UniProtKB/TrEMBL annotation:
InterPro entries hit by this protein: Glyco_trans_2-like, Glycosyltransf_2, Nucleotide-diphossugar_trans
Name recorded for this polypeptide: Glycosyltransferase 2-like domain-containing protein
Domain Glycosyltransferase 2-like per the UniProt entry, residue ranges: 14-182
Domain of life: Bacteria
Native organism: Meridianimarinicoccus roseus
Family annotation (Pfam families): Glycos_transf_2 (PF00535)
């Protein structure tokens, strides 16, 4: 039973942790999954070529719980590691936890209950708490503003491209069947979470959002998102372009006024020219998402960099 008294059953969730050089944090991440209780069918942890003691710690943890499946691989990047884990997942629901983050108690019960009550929704997320590298809680007013922006807009695509209020793949809790509709994560280093969520929005996937901190995001010096803001902006514009491109396809394209609202958001962030350039490229290539071929095309990427 969850705290609201509704039965949510057992063995309904597969969790994927892409692990890379987080020996200091992986124990807490794993513990936060297992403490979700009998709802966890399996925890798939894939070490992506860590150079610290992450793998040896995981071998120890895996020996203590038969729900843990631990694998190692040569370094392939977060998106590829997540995709490999999701392909292995067998439960009704799948979720991703980055190896430096952790879940709050009761997260799975709350999100499963929300999705059980709304059969038309396929993905859920929550508010987020924040800690520093030493585990001390910190404030992040930006997220409060981002969530307020979503509540005002009540438009998932617009809200995500304006302020990515879901923030991280660690906040994605979804029916496994959604992957058959949307596909896997694209080969982006910084915004594979946003691009996936925007593809969901363009395909009119409904989100259940619980505005309370059911996961903890850790800020520390090695966060990927802090590496290169110019590259983040290129991927941000490209992710927005995927949404605009997809939203205008099919038998029920979004109205012109909504496209205009997308352009207003992107113009405010100085990304409109780059997004338009990317939309044209997607149409020329007949692509409906970011591909390896696109992201490794140096001519295209240089063109994007010049526009952001």
């Amino acid at each position: 039973m969850d705290q609201g008294g509704a039965a949510v059953s057992e063995g309904r969730v597969s969790v994927v942790i892409p692990l890379y050089n987080h020996a200091d944090y992986i124990r807490q991440a794993v513990r936060s999954v297992l403490e979700q209780g009998a709802l966890v069918q399996e925890l798939i942890v894939i070490d992506d070529g860590s150079k610290d003691s992450s793998a040896s710690i995981m071998r120890e943890l895996a020996a203590g719980d038969d729900r843990i499946r631990f694998l190692t691989q040569e370094n392939s990047g977060a998106h590829a590691t997540i995709n490999r884990g999701l392909e292995m997942a067998e439960a009704e629901f799948v979720t991703v936890l980055n190896s430096d983050d952790y879940y709050a108690p009761g997260r799975f019960a709350a999100l499963i209950r929300a999705l059980d009550l709304d059969a038309g929704a396929d993905i859920a997320g929550s508010g987020i708490g924040f800690v520093d590298g030493d585990g001390q809680q910190i404030e992040n007013p930006w997220l409060n503003d981002a969530i307020d922006n979503y509540k005002r807009k009540r438009n998932l695509g617009l809200a995500l491209m304006d302020y990515n209020f879901l923030m991280t793949t660690s906040n994605f809790f979804m029916r496994r069947s959604l992957l058959d509709r949307i596909g896997n994560f694209s080969p982006l280093r910084y915004t594979h979470d946003m691009e996936f969520a925007l593809r969901c929005a363009a395909r009119r996937v409904r989100l259940c959002f619980l505005d309370r901190p059911l996961m903890m995001y850790r800020f520390h010096g090695a966060n990927t998102i802090s590496e290169d803001h110019a590259k983040v902006r290129v991927e941000w514009a490209l992710s927005a372009a995927v949404y605009i491109h997809l939203a205008q396809m099919g038998s029920h394209p979004v109205p012109d006024d909504q496209v205009a609202r997308c352009h207003e958001v992107l113009d405010r962030h100085g990304l409109l020219r780059a997004a338009r350039y990317a939309v044209d490229e997607l149409r020329t290539r007949g692509a409906d998402r970011v591909t390896d071929t696109l992201i490794t095309d140096t001519g295209f990427i240089d063109g994007m960099k010049a526009l952001v």
